[in-house]
């Protein structure tokens, strides 16, 4: 079942019957924002923070503000049905688009479209692999830092990573500094210090990134791409990966996950088990 509607309300619909107009601006020009949340039998993880960021991303696109009470109600309905299956892990997505509009970039006057869906998910392995790619993030883009539905460049970069046997692609920004992955934030460990690029690099303000910075001793610093070839440890974070140690970075290979990343991974999981919506 999928919840389909607008910023003012909607209904649960069988997935095979769920429909959005082919003239929806999210479909024609990727005029939309979204959130992806991990869900467990205890509930959606960090829902309050994800709803806050949904509103911030909508504001970046100058979309009408989502009614967060409606979004929260839709999430609750979708989660309740998903939980009935008794699965241990799921992936919930909230999509909020410009709604039906004329063909082209001009936005119409219709209410934005809101869709909430949830599917079972498989846990990530304990460690992961990454490669660098030649494409860059534009830290001066009008939508830099917003979680928009315009993910074509991520699709291309991730395919390059998959073709090289890796699960993530890491990118620089236009001035050559380390920025982020296609769906992750990146952290490095240098002489025991944990460092991640600042938001000014153009990276997404990841929810897991935010929690890691709050819960651990982490510095935000501008980093050259070369740091990936020098760091003692590298790990990435996302809402589905949590803290995910990297054991292969391009041609560099570690025999196992680094001690700092593994310790943070374990502590992060412990804290989420105690508080599902920190």
Write the layout of secondary structure elements.
Blueprint (H helix, E strand, L loop, with lengths): L1 E5 L2 E5 L11 H4 L3 E9 L2 E2 L2 H14 L7 H16 L6 E8 L15 E8 L7 E10 L14 H12 L4 E6 L4 E4 L3 E6 L2 E4 L10 H9 L2 E3 L12 E6 L3 E8 L2 E2 L5 H16 L4
Parallel strand pairs: 7-8, 7-14, 11-12
Antiparallel strand pairs: 1-2, 1-6, 3-4, 3-5, 5-6, 8-9, 10-11, 10-13, 13-14, 14-15
Q: Summed up, what is this model?
A:
This protein is α+β, with helices and mostly antiparallel strands and 278 residues long. The protein has helices at 25-28, 47-60, 68-83, 152-163, 207-215, 259-274; strands spanning 2-6, 9-13, 32-40, 43-44, 90-97, 113-120, 128-137, 168-173, 178-181, 185-190, 193-196, 218-220, 233-238, 242-249, 252-253.
Mean pLDDT: 97
Low-confidence stretches: none
Number of strands: 15
Q: What is the 3D shape? A: globular
What separation lies between the terminal Cα atoms?
27 Å
What is the oligomer described by this structure?
single chain
How would you describe this structure to a colleague?
By secondary structure, the chain is α+β, with helices and mostly antiparallel strands. Helices cover 26% and strands 31% of the residues. Strands 7, 8, 9, 10, 11, 12, 13, 14 and 15 form a nine-stranded mixed β-sheet that branches. Strands 2-1-6-5-3-4 form a six-stranded antiparallel β-sheet. The chain starts with a strand and ends with a helix.
